[in-house]
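Figure S4 source data
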Amino acid sequence: MRVALVEDNAIFCFLFKRFLEEYPARKIEVQLFSDGKKALDYFVSTKDEPSFHPNLIFIDINMPIMNGWELIDNLMNYKFEFIHNSHVYIVSSSKSPLDRSNYREYNFIKDYITKPIDREGIYKILDEYISDESQ
């Protein structure tokens, strides 16, 4: 399983990656991107290589260079099919009603998760993905 995290907070990235590496049900390959531009550049460079695309994507909203909404819009503009086949989650410390309502405009985004997120919360999402995948 491949999981991408697009997040600029180094501490959150460290913890998130550690939780994924310790996930007992399946080996997980973790891709970390510190901003939306780095993630977009990677996805553009691997557009014709679906095996490099993530099964789950966690995207922060507030990042430098390219924020989460800009990344999502660019992924749609480039017509990346994997966003419709992956489980996409917004992970943000923003409790703004505008941010929370924006995610509903994208039918492929599974949920809006407010930080902090703990190990059990991440594992629940991974378990749900595995359950959906096996159906």
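Figure S5 source data
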Amino acid sequence: MTTYAIGSVNGNYQTLMQLVAKVGFDPREDRLWFAGNLVNQGPESLQVLRYVKSLGKTAVAVLGKQELHLLSVAQGYAQAGPANTLDEILTAPDRDELLKWLRLRSLIHHDSKLNFTLVNAGLPGEWTFSQALTFAYEVESVLSGSNYAAFLENRKQDQSRWHAKLRGWKRLNFIANAYTQMAYCNEQGKLDFKAAGPAGSQSNGLIPWYRVPNRLTSQLNVVFADDVHFADSDCAGFHPLAELSALKLSTPTEIISVMPQLP
């Protein structure tokens, strides 16, 4: 059995099918990990969502920024932007079933046998592995419960720094922001929600989240979606995945990619 981790799909179903074919994915034997951001931007978000859901236990998908945005738009707590391609999902006959399936996804997935950990964006350096799982569960339990709409209504980028004493929506917002929007931060772990582009091109004091000194999860092999284009070639133990690229979770690892099809 082989497991492949796949970066952001962004609603590009046809290109995803090319990638799945290129790696020789066999659902009877293999497994797929999706690093979030399945939907939006591309023209086929509905097809992507239906396909990944149809894979059942053959696939693992963690929540990304785009999934949380979709859930917020569906509840009327966020506006769909002019470049959003979510209407087909929101008007689909199986809309509610798909949205519920999304709400039940995790923010982090770990496989001790493979020794790989999957997240969408990042993992704060001041969290231990046990804390990372516990804090993720705090958000997951709210999203999967009857109070999920209140969480979506109160989603904000109002917390860029972790404090153990954070409570309520601020606490849940930081946890969700870290898992789905973390990219660059300062050496103390304060998040910057705007910085993007190659590592080393940022303003003074900003570093990729995985370069924060004294990380408490340095023993993990972390796979994540590289949607800010770090272009960092020296990040041992961390595996940034470009859009619609796949990482064969083996020793040694192998990257497989295809060119995204233009809409």
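The mean pLDDT is 94. The first strand starts at residue 3 and ends at 6.
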